[in-house]
Specification:
It is built from two helices and 16 strands. It has three domains: 57 residues; 111 residues, Immunoglobulins (Immunoglobulin-like, Sandwich), CATH 2.60.40; 90 residues, no CATH class. By secondary structure, the protein is an alpha+beta fold.
Length: 265
């Protein structure tokens, strides 16, 4: 019985060093592998970040009018006669210089607010000196064409990366007019303002119509230089210079009334 107990004790004492050696070896392996795993993860992240930075540096989405700094959006002023829809025209490009050209196709979409058409397309990669697309957005005639219309245009690249460009376009009527409140006065003052527009012409033909109750001042140059005048139908057409302001007096039949209803087109 004593011999059997002694044998068991000897076996245990032999196994204990082996078990301790296994635990020690496992600890050493873990100590070695853990820094390697951390270092490998670090190397992977560095390579990935460098690749993303390099790819981003090779991505160029620009415009001749829209800007990328949304805290300082460029603003432009346009003139139109609102006889039909106005047009906003600009370019989108896949480069910012002859040396910096995007190596990937760029898909984009364009919108205009508060009103207007939209567009979408793709700028092909490369090109010499890069590629560009001409965008034309149609802006419908507003409810009040005599008041300035503010339109914000946004172009967004949807692939391979997202980037937003914006521009603000304030559209003024190239032809606007007012007739001041004239109740209690024997005359009514018509004021006509012509702005420069997108055409090269320096003058434009203007038609003035007026309702019953007053007659225009026949000594005014607007009337004298009219290309057509019909006092019975109460209408005239005359040629006026752009970038100028004109006034025309109407003599009222009834001084007490507020004479209105004059139209200029």
């Amino acid at each position: 019985m004593k011999n059997k107990s002694a044998n068991i004790s000897d076996d245990l004492s032999q196994k204990r060093p082996k078990k301790q050696m296994m635990v020690f070896s496992l600890a050493v392996i873990l100590l070695i592998c853990f820094p390697v795993a951390v270092f490998a993860s670090y190397i992977y992240n560095v390579v990935l970040n460098n690749y993303a930075a390099t790819a981003d540096e090779e991505f160029y989405f620009t415009s001749d009018l829209l800007g990328a700094d949304l805290s300082a959006i460029p603003t432009y002023y346009l003139g139109t006669d609102w006889q039909s829809a106005a047009t906003i025209t600009f370019k989108l490009r896949n480069f910012d210089s002859t040396l910096n050209i995007s190596a990937s196709d760029i898909a984009y979409s364009v919108t205009a607010t508060a009103s207007g058409s939209s567009a979408e397309g793709t700028l092909a990669a490369g090109g010499s000196p890069g590629n560009e697309a001409t965008i034309e957005l149609s802006i419908p005639v507003p409810a009040d064409p005599n008041s300035p219309l503010t339109v914000t245009v946004t172009a967004v690249s949807t692939s391979p990366y997202t980037k937003t460009l914006q521009g603000i376009f304030i559209i003024n009527s190239a032809l606007s007019y007012t007739i001041a409140d004239n109740a209690g006065s024997p005359i009514a003052w018509l004021k006509v303002t012509l702005e420069k527009d997108s055409t090269a012409a320096l003058t434009r033909a203007v038609t003035i119509n007026w309702p019953v109750g007053a007659s225009p001042d026949m000594t005014n140059p607007i009337v004298i230089n009219a290309t057509s005048l019909d006092l019975t139908a109460r209408t005239m057409t005359t040629v006026l210079n752009k970038a100028a302001v004109y006034e025309l007096i109407f003599f009222k039949d009834s001084p007490a009334a507020n004479y209105s209803g004059v139209t200029v087109s």
